[in-house]
Amino acid sequence: MMLEGKTAIITGAARGIGLACAERFVKEGAKVVLADVMDDEGEAAAKRLSESGGHVCYRACDVTDKSQVEALIAFTRETYGRVDCVIANAGIVHTSDILELEEADFDRVIAVNLKGVFLTGQAAARAMRDQAPDADGSRGTIINMSSLNAVVAIPAITPYVIAKGGVNQWTKCLGIRMAPEAVRVNAIGPGSINTEMFQTVADDPAKMHAVLSRTPMERPGEPDEIAKVAVFLASHYSSYMTGQTVYPDGGRMGLNYVVPVRENAG
């Protein structure tokens, strides 16, 4: 198992990609702290994973609140002794025409998707800096959940696009800063993934066709496909990577034209 004996924190872990990461990390031998603001779903997920044999617990955390983020890190260190990996995954999206976008909606998306990633990464980096290296010489890994939309703009979700672009730059900055401390920082920029957030697209044939027409693999990705990338970035197999954003997107970013979609695709 690639993460045997490691301890991981995953924010936004009650559902979607965050939950898939938790499930995959447990399979790879990690102890996992699920963090979210959706307590019922988070606690249910932790209970299910624990009953399947995993070392899993749930901790409520609003990533826009510095004190809650710091308490999450402290709780994990007190419970498991160290923090080997933190996945800053919590995120939201708001759809609006740019000219009608309300300031409060803009601020909320930036607070969760950018400030939350900053606060999580800063607190994690401080904790990792102060702990002893593991057998591979690593003090820890931080994985930020970005998006293909960090580099491919969609005006209807402008605050999300801006935030994810910031996440990519934050990943570079923190990765450079923490390299001498033996802490690696990388990001994942998924394309269209079959999550609850994607459901409104999946349920609309026209929207789904638009997604598939610019995805060479002609299908959305699955949450576990992103989780497997996270396992790689958390493991010693990515030991020479830091400050990078990896894009599991079905080939979408490299495409500069629309592909014909077969009737049975997707």
From TrEMBL:
- Provide the alphabetized UniProt keywords: Oxidoreductase
An example Pfam family from this entry, by short name, is adh_short_C2
The Ketoreductase domain is annotated at: 6-191
Task: Enumerate the transmembrane spans.
Answer: none
Give GO BP annotations, semicolon-separated: fatty acid biosynthetic process
Molecular-function GO term, any one: oxidoreductase activity, acting on the CH-OH group of donors, NAD or NADP as acceptor
Give the UniProt family note: Belongs to the short-chain dehydrogenases/reductases (SDR) family.
Protein name per the record: SDR family oxidoreductase
Q: What is the lineage of its organism?
A: Bacteria, Pseudomonadati, Pseudomonadota, Alphaproteobacteria, Rhodospirillales
